[in-house]
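Glutathione S-transferase (Bradyrhizobium zhengyangense), 215 aa
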Amino acid sequence: MPTYRLHHFPESGNSYKLALMLTLCGETFEPVWTDFGGGVTRTADWRKTVNEMGEIPVLEVDGVKMTQTAPLLLKLAEQYGRFGAETEAEKFELLRWLFWDNHKLTGYMATYRFMRAFTEKNDPHVLKHFRRRLDDFLGILDGHLQHNAFAIGTKPTVADISMMAYLHYPSDEHGFDFAASHPAIHAWLGRMATLPGWKPAYELLPGKRMTNYAK
């Protein structure tokens, strides 16, 4: 069986996507905490030795460093035969929602949450812009989930793992009360949390936590 090491920091939803996927597939990994808040990923040495793209997470598979969460989720789904798609139509839908999440939902939520909770001084005009965009994206997802148990229908896939990652963090970080504002998303997050082996990010990803200025 492969040996996994996951370079992460606990607040990283993208790190959580891989940690959760491995856990749900019955695998373990060695967590490697990374001082993202301290700027280590912006150093030349880290980019030379860990990830030239300057991003977290990095998944080591038998010593080989691999990056970019979406293709890694797809690779793991194929490898373990879980949380993937079966038909060509399902494959298209999985990719459609996975790419939408990366470009829209995760892309905006990760930045908004980081600025809102983990930046001591932020620009309220920028936060307002991101919040307006997120309200739109969350409305799209909530509408879809009113008629679908999961992203592509009746079973969870890596698209669900990708979309739920940043949304499952505490509300004092992202500022949304999904039970009140987006009940279909709230119910879907509840369904995801019933998957055998599911754990939240702060249980799966150890290490020093960043200061939450939004509390």
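The chain is about 55% helix and 10% strand. The chain has a mean pLDDT of 97. ok done for today
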